[in-house]
Amino acid sequence: MADTVTLLQLRTWARQLSDTENDPNISDTELTALANRHRSELRDRLVDAGPADYFASTSQITTAAGTIPYAVPADFRNLVEVYVREDSAGQVRRLLPMPEGTRANYKAPTQVYTVDVEYIAIEAELTTDGSTLDAVSGWAELIANLMARDVMTKRESDPSVVMSNIARLEARITTRSRKRDRAPKRTVDLDDVNADRWPYQRASSALACYRLRAGNLELYESFVTYP
Asked: What residues does each domain of the chain span?
């Protein structure tokens, strides 16, 4: 269940923490910019703490014969996984990145494939008082404290209290975010996990690998084929 916080609430919270509720020199515009900056910082911390799948979005690419590059989504931040659909029943096969220095071994797709791209998206900015963010587990408190720290630094006041809050909250993120996936741990046969014989595995589709380059996801078949 989402724990939403509005931009207005964040600005009010930051003013209270920095004791600037009535300071005309601290504008809403300035606080909004700080809120968006530190919201992105919090997002990066949560994504890096993992698991990445928790934040993943999915976009679909349909290839065209002879075409290698395909634009990534406009809100693309970083890649999680790439899968090619093997049949109409929904079976997928994971594509791995092209090994460094092997571009000459691959060619453009010769067929039409459906490819699922799992990626971490950039969140839209907070723009109006009612704009909301998901403050799951109360982590929006870090944003408010970071905003207050910047305001207090600008005013040359002592930010030690909010700095203590920031250190506590950053430690909490590191500790708690690792516990998102609490599924039972099982023994895994690593031979099965690595049995995909990439890049020349026998599969119904001939798509071999991908490369992320210059804002595009490049998709390739191999020049080598196996019966």
From this structure: 4-51+127-177, 56-121+201-222
